[in-house]
Each structure stands twice: as structure tokens, then as C-alpha cells.
Amino acid sequence: MLQLTTLVRIVKWGVYLNRMLMLFILFVTLFFVVACTSNNNIKEMESSVNNVTSKEIKNNLISYYETINLKNAIESSFNKKVFKKKGYPDGYDLILSRAKKEVVLVIRPYSKKNFNYLKADLQSNIEEVLQSKKYTDYKVKVLADWNKTNQIEKQEHEQKVIDEIANIMKHTYKINVLIGTRYSATDGRIVQLDLMFYKNNEEIIDPNEVNNFHKEFLKLAQEKGFNVKDIPIRFKTNLKRDWEMKVMPSIDQGLQEINDLKVTSTTIIDEQNPIIINTSINSKDKKAKEIGKRIEELTNEFFQYKQINKSLSGPYKIHVLSKDNKKIN
Fold first, then answer.
1. 71: closest CA among 137, 155, 129?
2. Would you say 92 and 78 are in contact if contact means Cβ atoms under 8 Å apart?
3. 140 near 123, Cβ under 8 Å?
4. What DSSP assignment string belongs to 206-267?
5. DSSP bridge pairs for 142
6. Is residue 80 classed as helix, strand or coil in its secondary structure?
7. CB–CB of 265/278 below 8 Å?
8. Any alpha helices (H) in the chain, and if so which ranges?
9. Tens-binned pLDDT, residue by residue, of the chain (329 aa)
10. Cβ contacts of residue 175 below 8 Å, gap of 6+?
């Protein structure tokens, strides 16, 4: 009887162990499946975040550069396909607004009949270019400027202000300021400035001195109510065309469009001199170094853009300056 009882106990114990073993195997299997699934989900989420980030983050300097290319493509197209066939107006001005997402072509036609003859073809031509370049969210306006000349009162006023600034700087700093201007063919506003500074009949070429006088010029212009913030400024002639027409405005306007970078102006002389970027932040501000670093990174990334890098590979020195003239990058 004792042997039978012992045998029954052994059998029950074996069944118990077998059940425990099965439960253990089941637990391990479930753990493995959950772990693998979780790991795959994490990888998918990481991939998703990376994909979204890579699509959403875009360098504003590169974006501005692409806009310049778009403007050039539009201008080239309507010159070849409309003006060359139907005749040129007395003058025109092409304005591409990134903020408003619109293209405005202002022409100075010879008559109302001449304007109506050109308007529809210009409108459709610009729309075709925008469509081909995938800027379908941009609107197009073709307008007429009925002034007989671009020599208007505004132009005379702005020239007077510029002469006054040059005179102030001459007496304050004992320098001569040579200023060249280019005007719009429609409303006569200044669309480009050349600034060169001379002392004792010798041109000032030190980039830091040029930058200081450039900032003083901007300050005096602002005090006199003359907004030159959006006007391209050259400090040297005979520059490479792409450097002058694309690189300089892309860096200057591309950075100024990003409000939290607090960029006030740039002094870009040529490829040999450092690119100086002025900000309104104080060097003691806790965010100064962070902003300086970000500006430098955006500018370096811009020069790595394939369309720029193939002809203007650098390297370029970048000096980001605080309001109190300290380097913060």
C-alpha cells in the first residue's frame, strides 16, 4: 500500500513539473515575441521620425537660392517666348515674393493697346514655368506702370539721402564713401548699391573695417528713414556672377528671414575674405553661442549644396558677430 501511494505521489509530481515546464516555455516564447515586436515598432517609429524630419527640415539659404533660380527661369522664358516675338516694353521689373507666394511682373508699356497685347501671353508663360518647376501654389500678376520715365521724385529723394550719409561719414571718420546705385526700370527705386570706403586715397580692404563702416552706413540710413535692409550691397566689383547674384543674396536674405537668428546684416566682400554675419544679440546673452553655431552650420550646409559646391567649394571663413562686435561662433 505504501509503494502504491509513493508511486501516485511521483506521478502527480511529474505532472506538476511538466505543467510548470510548459508554462515556462510559453512565458519565454511570449516574451521573445513581445520583445521582437516592440523592437520592430521602435525601429519603424525611428525610421518614420527620421523620414519626416528629413523632409520637413530645409535650409532657408538653399530655399532662397532655389527661388533665385526660379526667378531667373521665369525671366529667361518670357524674354524668349514673349518679348522677343511681340516686342519689348519700355522697361519691366520682376518681383518674386516668397512670403506672399506670388510673382508680380510690372511693365512700362507704350500704350494701353500694347499692354493688352502682351499681358495674357506673359501671364500664361509665367504660370507655365511655375507649373513646370512645381511652384503651383504661387499666384501671378501682370501689372502696368504708366510713368513715362523711372526718373521720379522717390529716386531723387533716395539719392539725396545717400549723399547726406556719405557726407556725414566723411566728416565723422575722415573717409570718402564711393556709392554706386542701380535703379528699377519701372518705379525708379534703388535695387542695388555699391559701397566702397577710402582713406587717404587708398581703398579700405580690411574686412572688419569694411564691416564697421557698412554697419554705420545702415544705421545712418535707418535714422533718415531710408530702408536699405533688402537692397543688395556690393563692396567690390568684378565678382563671379554666381557669387554676386546668387550666393550673396541667399546668405544675406536667407538668414534675415529666420527671425530667431536675429541677423541684421552681412558683409560679404568676395571668396577670399571671411563672410561676416552681424546679429542684434549681445555676446553675454546665454543663447549667443547657440545662435552663432546655428548660423555657421546653416551657412556651411549651404555651401555643401551640390549646385553651389561644384563651382564654389570653399572652404570659407564665417564670422558671426554679436551686437557688441564679439565673435559668437
1. 129
2. no
3. yes
4. -HHHHHHHHHHHHHHHHHTT---TTS-EESSSS--HHIIIIIHHHHHHHHHTSGGG-EEEEE
5. 105
6. helix
7. yes
8. 2-56, 60-78, 84-86, 112-132, 153-173, 207-223, 241-242, 248-256, 288-304, 306-309
9. 444 444 445 444 554 455 554 544 444 443 443 344 334 433 433 332 233 222 343 899 999 999 999 999 999 999 999 999 999 999 999 999 999 999 999 999 999 999 999 999 999 999 999 999 999 999 999 999 998 777 778 788 889 999 999 999 999 999 999 999 999 988 888 999 999 999 999 999 999 999 999 999 999 999 999 989 889 999 999 999 999 999 999 999 999 999 999 999 999 999 999 999 999 999 999 999 999 999 999 999 999 999 999 888 788 999 999 999 999 99
10. 169, 197, 198, 199, 204, 213
State the pTM of this model.
0.79
What is the Rg, in whole angstroms, of the alpha carbon atoms belonging to the chain? 33
Closest CA to 249 of 308, 207, 290, 196: 308
